[in-house]
Specification:
Its main location: membrane. The chain contains 6 helices and 35 strands. The protein is mainly β.
């Protein structure tokens, strides 16, 4: 196995870090915390941790987009089909649609497209994000379907002051954001954020994005209320997925995709007493997409016909739950939720004649769930159960069990087991050509053991061993020319994270992961899943100047395209530099150099990274 130098270096440093006071638990150093927000609804859960990135760290990194931001979070595998192409994310070997994506507690996955339930991260501008929580492991017992391998939760900003920022750079990069916020007597708050950005790296790669977000809050002595409204649109031009990109694509025509996303959510929390709190939420989301695909000529794999497709997904859901603190060591939560969704697909495939591929599907699901956490001296036990009754499918019961043992003030051991399920996507069920209404839900079993050490001098080290089993995965059967349940995949591996303060002005952090994947009864491989991956980050704070140097590295991996079939791709290391100079309390300048070493590499077959890119910007607090 060919490995890049960086993962091997991580391994050596990892052995040193376990016995030194140098490293802590996340790549973002002292700006990343281990939180218990995303993996559970319990208020004081002490077991499962989620990596969290704060607003301060987001501003320090100053990412191009949200995908660029996610690359800085440890043990997430992020890849794209070029500057404006589709994105792919994997947590512990799972597919992109095995990751539940939420914005302020609202699920935003789209099951109508061919990816089977992923999320277009370009619809969310980094300027509106206050914090990101990432949980690794199945949480269907907490959040239901889609949360098979992990959760990415974006919490939007609520109180941000007033600011104006503009930025420009190579490849016709332009970005701008206006944020206005106000707060009245600490009871009423309002925030408005307007963002726009664009980039064109070639005649075949261009993206434009706009987003408007409004957030209103009202707090009383015993209650909190929040209204969130968001609307965004993204227009992009890029070679189609599996086309072979700018190197191999034929015909030499790019796919055009125009999409819109809207979200409305109302959240209320009431404190009935010092020990009893109840929460309710109702939300509505809509995702629309228009795709004009020129098709892909046959290669090693059969070609793909040209198509013009419009999709429309609408979802209304709500939940209510009670959180009861029975004692300082025992809490119980119980609630119910419901969801009604409608997906439509309209368009044609070009087989020499226009073949309609229209479908419409409705889906309902009603659920009941409970969680409890009990602390017994140095042991803490957490249990989660969820009952789902999806329409036209069998009922599902998901469970989750966590156990933690606090060995001493610095060291904690933990173990967890969870079960998950995911309903087949609207595309897999209802597409006129390849859809199969008899598909069963995809199932998972997830287990994990780990250790976390928090040193007295501020360092922290965390290591996790995990094993996942995915069954009844939906796959396309070329002979039957339809989707079927048949695949079984086992994934296992280790994740290590650590960071710490080297001196008064410099902190270092690094992470690495090893992933082993066993696809049963086939010689094929899962795409874009390297065995080795990792990252390193150095943060320097010099008076009014902050500098961040980061590297994201991965070993060789398998990928596939129509022109090539399945091939083994070279690993790569991507280095980036971010700097911000605070001229005053209100004025700052920023400079970003992406792909600092100007390396040529491909994240997907034929899609070559655009090389070194430079951006410079200015931000003024009004």
């Amino acid at each position: 196995m060919k490995l890049t130098l960086l993962p091997l270096t991580f391994g050596a440093l990892g052995l040193i870090g376990l016995s030194s006071d140098t490293f802590a638990s996340q790549r973002q150093g002292d700006n990343i915390e281990s939180l218990t927000v995303t993996g559970t609804r319990l208020q004081q859960n002490q077991l499962q941790t989620s990596t969290s990135m704060s607003r301060a760290e987001i501003e320090r990194i100053n990412p191009q987009d949200t995908l660029d931001l996610l690359k800085q979070i440890p043990n997430l595998l992020i890849s794209t089909d070029g500057v404006a192409g589709r994105s792919h994310i994997a947590i512990r070997g799972g597919e992109s649609n095995f990751t539940l994506v939420m914005i302020d507690g609202v699920t935003v996955n789209d099951p109508t497209n061919s990816s089977g339930g992923g999320f277009d991260f370009s619809q969310l501008d980094p300027a509106v994000i206050e914090r990101i929580d990432v949980y690794r492991g199945g949480t269907s017992a907490i959040y239901g379907g889609e949360a098979v391998s992990g959760v990415i939760h974006f919490i939007t900003r609520q109180s941000a002051g007033n600011s104006l920022s503009v930025e420009a750079g190579s490849d016709k990069q332009q970005r701008g954001n206006l944020t206005l916020s106000t707060q009245s007597n600490q009871d009423l708050s309002a925030l408005l954020s307007l963002s726009a950005n664009q980039q064109q790296s070639s005649d075949f790669a261009e993206i434009q994005h706009q987003q408007a977000l409004l957030k209103l809050g009202a707090d009383t002595k015993n209650s909190e209320h929040q209204l969130l409204l968001s609307a965004s649109s993204t227009d992009r031009l890029a070679f189609a997925e599996d086309s072979g990109g700018e190197i191999l694509a034929f015909p030499r025509e790019a796919e055009r995709r125009d999409s819109k996303h809207a979200l409305a959510s109302w959240l209320s929390q009431f404190d009935s007493s010092d020990t009893l709190k109840w929460t309710s939420r109702i939300s509505w989301t809509r995702t629309e997409e228009q795709t004009d695909n020129p098709g892909i000529a046959p290669g090693v794999i059969d070609g793909i016909p040209a198509s013009m497709i419009e999709s429309d997904y609408r979802k209304l859901d709500g939940e209510i739950y009670l959180n009861w603190q029975l004692s300082d060591s025992w809490s119980v939560l119980g609630g119910a939720s419901g969801k009604k969704a409608t997906g439509e697909n309209r368009g044609t495939l070009d087989f020499g004649f226009p073949m309609p591929v229209n479908f419409r599907l409705e889906q309902e699901n009603y659920s009941a769930f409970m969680e409890t956490s009990k602390r017994l001296d140095d042991l803490t036990l957490e249990l989660g159960l969820r009952f789902d009754a999806p329409k036209d499918f069998d009922n599902e019961l998901s469970s989750r069990l966590n156990l933690a043992w606090q060995l001493n003030q610095q060291t904690q051991l933990h173990a967890s087991y969870s079960e998950g399920y995911k309903l087949p996507s609207f595309f897999a069920l209802a597409h006129p050509l390849v859809g199969n209404p008899e598909l069963k839900p995809e199932l998972s079993e997830n287990s994990e053991i780990g250790i976390r050490v928090q040193g007295q001098s501020g360092y922290s080290v965390q290591m996790n061993l995990f094993y996942n089993k995915f069954e009844d995965l939906v796959d396309f059967d070329a002979e039957l020319f339809t989707n079927v349940n048949r695949s079984e995949v086992h994934t296992s591996g280790v994740e290590w994270r650590g960071s710490g303060q080297l001196n008064e002005w410099l902190s270092a952090s690094l992470d690495f992961a090893y992933l082993d994947i066993d696809v049963k009864d086939t010689d094929s491989h899962l795409r874009r899943r390297p065995k080795w991956s990792g990252g390193i980050q150095l943060n320097a704070q010099l008076d009014n100047l902050s500098i961040t140097l980061s590297a994201d590295s991965r070993g060789e991996f398998y990928d596939s395209s129509v022109p090539t079939g399945e091939i083994l791709m070279n690993g790569y290391t991507e280095v980036a530099l971010a700097a911000r100079w605070h001229l005053s309390d209100n004025l700052s300048l920023s400079l970003n150099l992406d792909n600092l070493l100007d390396k040529d590499f491909e994240q997907s077959v034929g899609f070559v990274d655009p090389g070194r890119q430079a951006r410079a910007g200015i931000r003024y607090r009004l």
